[in-house]
Specification:
The chain is α/β, with parallel strands linked by helices. The chain contains 16 helices and eleven strands. The strands form three sheets. A six-stranded parallel sheet has the order 7-6-3-2-1-11. Strands 8-9-10 form a three-stranded parallel sheet. A two-stranded antiparallel sheet has the order 4-5.
């Protein structure tokens, strides 16, 4: 594995190693690092609708044909859903196969928040006792309960070779009309949410699992669901700083290596209806004002707020130009990959811009494999 380092290695030594690796990668290898895809995206026999099916066409192993496709379109990460799981041994075997696809160690992600969003715990064949929704844990006002919940989750994620959990939800449950967050959030109080999510992150880290704060800049005070279409926050930047961003700042200060964007628009901040995922202004604020240095992951790019308003290739390129490091679940992986390659070759995206994201991604991977 190219990314293996000694635990005693200094930050400077790790940085030198990563820069050396990047200098030897081909452009296609670099571009691949920017994608997190479903295993099904490697199967050329499946069309895009089949790949995105919630319950059908689930790949349970990596076939020779899929390995061949991966060699042509090498992704940096994979996301696992219930349809990829048949048994405990099969899941471990699948994830071992994914990790061995490249010496750059493709990361394996899943959504295991507790409550209704639990990709592994909801699969009966794994016999996992489900964790209550985070709202119940938040109500206890005891951060130790958040730590314990995450510790339990991270223990079985580690067992099944998962690297990154797309949790905790950093959103504030501040709008009772919200259709998507609700009991996924710890609280309607930002300070309580901040304390709880910091403990949750520490609980994940205790078993070697990385967490991911979501959904920047805060999906809790919206009325519509970005899975289906347009959603917006009516708040100004200062209003977000006074509420939604308190929990994100707590997670950043705790050292979270991943943040996921929301596809919500913020017209009172940007002056337009561009989703945060594609907004240069909002992502620059995350970097410059909130001082976030880690990996910025888009929410799934096949969601209605993106897919209904932008072409597949267009949204991928716009996300990278805006500052996204990892493109999660593009509707058409091959087309998205080729669109980025074309954009670099034509000078729309500089190779240096790609390198910035690859460096952040590889830095996070070194933490995972240590």
């Amino acid at each position: 594995m190219l990314l293996q380092t000694s635990k005693a290695a200094s930050e400077n030594e790790k940085e030198i190693l990563i820069k050396e690796i990047i200098s030897k990668l081909t452009l296609k290898e670099k571009i691949g690092q920017l994608f997190i895809i479903r295993p099904e995206s490697l199967d050329p026999s499946l069309n895009c609708e089949q790949v995105e099916s919630l319950y059908e066409y689930g790949c349970k192993n990596i076939s020779p044909q899929m390995k061949s496709f991966y060699n042509e379109y090498p992704a940096g990460g994979f996301i696992i859903f219930g349809k990829n799981i048949a048994s405990p041994s099969q899941l471990k075997s699948l994830n071992d196969s994914i990790h061995s696809l490249s010496p750059l160690y493709p990361l394996i992600y899943t959504d295991e928040e507790g409550g209704r969003v639990a990709r592994l715990a909801r699969v009966k064949k794994l016999h996992i006792k489900q964790t209550p929704p985070m709202a119940e844990i938040g109500e206890t006002q005891d951060p130790q309960n958040a730590y314990d919940a995450a510790f339990k989750i991270s223990k079985y994620l580690k067992k099944y070779k998962i690297d990154v959990d797309f949790a905790p939800v950093a959103d504030i449950n501040s709008n009772p009309k919200n259709k998507v967050i609700g009991d996924r959030a710890f609280s309607s109080d930002p300070k309580t949410t901040g304390k709880m999510l910091v403990s949750f992150i520490k609980g994940l880290n205790a078993n070697g699992i990385q967490g991911c704060l979501k959904h920047y800049p805060g999906h809790g005070d919206t009325e519509n669901d970005t899975h289906h279409g347009y959603a917006e926050t009516k708040k100004t930047w200062q209003e977000l700083l006074d509420c939604e961003l308190i929990s994100f700042k707590a997670g950043i200060e705790c050292g979270s290596n991943f943040i996921m964007t929301a596809h919500i628009s913020a017209p009172k901040i940007t002056g337009d209806t561009i989703p945060a995922t594609l907004s240069i202004e909002l992502l620059e604020k995350l970097r410059n004002e909130l001082n976030y240095k880690g990996v910025i992951v888009s929410d799934a790019m096949n969601m209605g707020a993106i897919k209904n308003n932008f072409e597949n290739d267009e949204s991928t390129v716009l996300a990278i130009l805006a500052g996204i490091d990892c493109i999660l679940m593009p509707f058409d992986y091959r087309s998205s990959f080729e669109a980025v390659l074309k954009a670099v070759e034509e000078g729309l995206i500089s190779e240096k811009r790609i390198d910035y994201s690859v460096e952040r991604i590889l830095t996070a991977k070194v933490v995972v494999v240590e």
